[in-house]
Amino acid sequence: MKKYSLFQFCLGFILILGCVTWGTAFQNREAFRIGEITVSPGEMKSGYLDVPEKGGIGSRIPFTVINGAKQGKTLALVAGIHAFEYPPILSLYKIKKMIDPAELSGTLILVHIANLHAFQKRIIYYNPYDWKNLNRVFPGDPEGSISERIAHVLKKEVIERSDYLIDLHCGDGNEALIPYLYWMVTGNEKLDQTTKKMALAFGIKHIIIDKSRTKDLSQSKYLGNTSVLLSTPAITTESGYLGRTDQKAVLRNVKGIMNVMKLFQMIEGNPQFTEEPVWIDHYEVVRSDHDGLFFPLTEMGYYAAKGEKIGYVTDYFGEVVQEFYAPFSGMILYIVNTPPANKGEPVYEIGRVKEK
Hints:
The chain has 356 residues and is α+β, with helices and mostly antiparallel strands. It contains 7 helices and 19 strands.
């Protein structure tokens, strides 16, 4: 009989114990269930979240779940709330191809196109069946209009199933927009520190310190705000403009998502943080009071002085009916670059840079 040294015996025992421990950990890792889909550890599956019909109108939300073989957190990535915002949508298809479930710690939920009706019809802001802005009707209503029912499904199946969430946006088909993101401040120190780290890890230089969101969950309006009010840390990002599909904006999103995953130890690597962020401590979305045509007199990223003329709206005969002046000195975060102006809709957003 072959004799083994004490060292060889101990080494063998450690290796066996390690295999048993890893196998037990894998077995204890639960399957992830969402909608009608069950995803085992180490698997990736795609499907639809069904939005029940009412009045003959229902919807389906395409999603993918990547359930890692290793223990970890659940991160939801939501694109297509505004369905003419293409870079976020394209980013998630790249992420899907990049992540190996066997190497992932935790679970990724990829909501590919939240507002599928609007995507199919190539419509900015609104769902074509109720003409509501999906990102203004959260937390939703299971008995409400189609947008409200979509919001309700996203709340129940995505927000409430996640540990963290990134709501991915960009300039809609009419908006020329610089890259920036919203850090929503709640007053909950622990939650706010987590979302601040997420914002800095995403890697976009301009960050809005957003204290303006309501604290009333029943009127939360926005996906990201609903998430933080339910104590799920979330940020809202903006990368891309004018409905384009430019790879620079897509890859900015991919890099940001991967870095946030490193922050939460879902993939290997050390997260990098924005070294010199530009904090925006006040912002204002300026809206048209009239239907007509908007004529911008400046462009995204321009630093406007208080009182400087930003643009004007004419009626359908070319007569000026409204002029816009900067309410304070700040940066033009986005500005509408297509002619249609509608009463109540934005024409530009301006942000005040926080003094150091």
